[in-house]
Specification:
The complex is a heterodimer of chains A (10) and B (214). Chain A is low in regular secondary structure. Helices cover 0% and strands 0% of the residues of chain A. The chains are: A little secondary structure (10), B mainly alpha (214).
């Protein structure tokens, strides 16, 4: 999973 | 988590406390666009649905999400109920459909996956990018702002600005990781503050009142 899809930012 | 993002998030937190402080101490929401504040509620509610889906990131992340949802709703309560008479809709005239329509369409076209949660997530990113427009429009219309209101906007602008070095840092430390939706929307969002910061630096930080040239 690319970092983009983790949604770990606010 | 890196320092850019941490300071950005703290600046975002600070902006909310500055806004609450302004409303509570002056007992007035004069100069604040309720449309922008309503858009923020929508931004947080649509983005943080993952609080309920089990995609846990960290305690920090969840607490911040709950705080942003709760505080944005509380601000609406203050503006719509507690200090309603100080809220002047006649100067808060930006048309919300100009924002909601295009951002909804963008989210349907540009998203990471065509699922309910992912489309809403993309929508919240696009919406946040332009949610400040009614507030800036109002500022432009009245041509001036209370100093405390400009500090609120400055804190918000710093929050957005710092996300950019955060992405650059993440790109290099996470093996070329990039979140194109967040990055493009974030750059647009930051650009919207450029005019404001020019006046903020040249006037407010020099001790003058925030006034736009006639």
């Amino acid at each position: 999973v690319p970092a983009a899809e983790k949604h770990d930012e606010l | 988590m890196n320092l850019f993002r941490l300071v950005a998030d703290l600046s975002h937190l600070a902006s909310i406390f500055i806004l609450l402080h302004k409303i509570q101490t002056t007992r007035s929401c004069r100069g604040i666009s309720i449309k922008t504040q309503l858009l923020y509620v929508l931004v947080f509610v649509t983005r943080y649905l993952d609080l309920f889906t089990g995609d846990f990131v960290s305690i920090y992340n969840s607490v911040m999400k709950l705080f942003f949802i709760g505080s944005s709703c509380y601000i609406i309560y203050l503006m719509r109920i507690k200090y309603k008479p100080t809220n002047d809709p006649s100067i808060d005239t930006f048309r919300l459909e100009y924002i909601l329509g295009p951002t909804a369409v963008l989210a349907l076209i540009f998203n990471y996956k065509f699922t309910f949660l992912e489309v809403l997530w993309a929508f919240s990113i696009y919406l946040e990018a332009v949610a400040i427009l009614p507030q800036l429009f109002m500022l432009q219309r009245t041509g001036e702002a209370e100093t405390i209101t400009t500090h609120y906007l400055a804190a918000l602008g710093i929050y957005r600005g710092l996300y950019i070095p955060n992405w650059i840092y993440r790109y290099f430390t996470e093996g070329g990781a990039i979140d194109p939706i967040a990055v493009v929307a974030g750059i647009v969002q930051t650009a919207l503050y450029v005019d404001f910061f020019y006046v903020y630096f040249t006037k407010v930080l020099q001790g003058q009142k925030f006034e736009l040239p006639a």
